[in-house]
Specification:
There is one protein chain. This protein is mostly helical. It is 57% helix and 7% strand. A hairpin with a 5-residue loop joins β1 and β2.
């Protein structure tokens, strides 16, 4: 798998990284987005229910409409919620101008909007998986308005 941000990371470790380069920053964001958008468990569960996730805003609404069969498996629930949050974040990053992934020092990925506001997408995804609220489409709408 070609993950562009790993090249940037390797160069930075060797002292060859230019943090001011917009090209390097864009490649790093592209790689992070590619990596975090995999969401394999969510994609498989959605596919079994007849929904193909295409990284679009409409797919978030479609996910909100699925019967929450994953709640029957308490061991899978947090993993599916994590994937739902990463998927939500990927859709936001790909469709909301200025939205970017930001990784906290703890390793927690959040989406930072152009306004500087951070959306804790993983937390929203877990809450959605457990209780159905907030709806993923609603979190997206709030991020798109900011």
């Amino acid at each position: 798998m070609n993950i562009p941000f790993l090249d940037t990371w390797r160069n930075r470790r060797r002292g060859e990284y230019d943090v001011s380069s917009p090209v390097a920053a864009a490649r790093e964001q592209e790689g992070i987005t590619e990596l975090l958008s995999e969401c394999e468990l969510l994609r498989v569960r959605a596919m079994h229910l007849g929904l193909r996730l295409d990284d679009s805003v409409d797919s978030l609404s479609a996910l909100d409409q699925l019967p929450p069969l994953w709640r029957e498996d308490p061991e899978e629930l947090p993993w599916l919620g994590n994937d739902a949050g990463l998927y939500l974040g990927s859709v936001i990053v790909r469709t909301v101008p200025g939205a970017r992934w930001h990784i906290w020092p703890t390793g927690q990925p959040v989406v930072r909007l152009a306004s500087g506001r951070e959306v804790q997408v993983v937390e929203s995804g877990v809450e959605w998986a457990v209780g159905g609220a907030p709806e993923l489409a609603q979190v997206y709408a709030e991020a798109a308005e900011a």
